[in-house]
Amino acid sequence: EELGNKREQARALHAMGYAYSLQRNFEKSLACHIKSLALSEEVGNRNLIAQNYNSLGLAHYSLGRYELGLEFYQKSRALCEELGDKATLNIALNNIATHYINEGRYADALRYLHKSLKMLEELGSDGDQRSLAYKLQNIGLIYRHQGRHDQALAYATRSLKMLEEIGDKFGIANLQNNIGVIYKSQGLYAESLEWFRKSNQGYQALQATPGLARTLNNIGDVYRLQDRYSEALAPLQESLRLREANGDRGGVTLTLNNLGRLYQDQGNYPEALKIAKRSAEMANRIYAREELWDA
Predict the structure, then answer these.
(1) Using one digit for the tens of pLDDT, what is the confidence trace for 46-83?
(2) What pTM was estimated for this model as a whole?
């Protein structure tokens, strides 16, 4: 009876951790999954162990601990392959691809994405719109980094349509931000601002502070690129405040970089140097990521 209770506790804690992750509360999610993992190991529930590995990877990754996140994703992948748990394996493969996208290792990322797509086909999950949408989104991200903007926009648009059909509000806000990045990369600043503002509104409705910080960073940097320096400072400072509060060290580094560029463009070199030193200190401790992708 005690063993059965522990099995149920492990499942309940995993469900709680998942609920917290949907709310973007990754500290609480992490705590739940650590407890669930310990109980899963105690009762020998290896499928739940694999799921907890993946969930721990997402929590660590979302908190800016990228290498630790990848370590847990790979643990989940290896155990899922051993168990034949294709559903969890599909998620782990996508998360690993996300990591390689952020590292600029696009060939590796595509390899894992294609494995993940094949897994969906084997599962007969043609109707799994969310999984398909996120894979299309990640393929679009690779094309953007390769400078293939038309293909990137085409994949992002397809993904957005799927997410709108299933009502994935967080995914929609995330993708709106990414479309803004595509336009920004092409120097189409008016279009990019339109999409960043849509994304910002979506994140506000969800009270998703990591997403808010991301869009504020992007809005501020577009203002800088448009020479609208007085308008750029406030969103960048608010982005920095939110990212520091969230413990998003990679995000802090990126926003510091944009603040430094703003001060440099204004000719405020002492302040630019001060910011550059802070950014360098942070970058020495972590790998900064340009985007954070969920799966």
Answers:
(1) 999 999 999 999 999 988 899 999 999 999 999 999 99
(2) 0.68
Angle at which helices 209-225 and 189-206 cross, to 10°? 160
Residue 97 carries which side chain, given as an amino acid letter? A
Q: Give the type of residue at 196.
A: F
d(CA 137, CA 212): 20
DSSP labels, 97-137: HHHHHHHT-HHHHHHHHHHHHHHHHHHT-TT-HHHHHHHHH
Does the CA dihedral 125-29-159-76 come out positive or negative?
negative
Residues in contact with 177: Cβ distance below 8 Å, sequence separation at least 6, in sequence order: 195, 196, 199, 211, 214, 215, 218
Q: Where are the alpha helices (DSSP H) in the chain?
A: 2-22, 26-43, 46-62, 66-83, 86-103, 106-123, 129-145, 149-166, 169-185, 189-206, 209-225, 229-246, 249-265, 269-283
204: number of Cβ within 10 Å: 14
Measured distance CA(149)–CA(237) in Å, rounded: 29
- In degrees and rounded to multiples of 5, residue 272 shows phi and psi of -65, -40
As a whole number of angstroms, the longest Cα–Cα distance in the chain is 71
Nearest to 61 by CA among 16, 15, 31, 95: 95
In angstroms and rounded to an integer, the radius of gyration of the C-alpha atoms of the chain is 20
Q: What is the pLDDT of residue 288?
A: 41
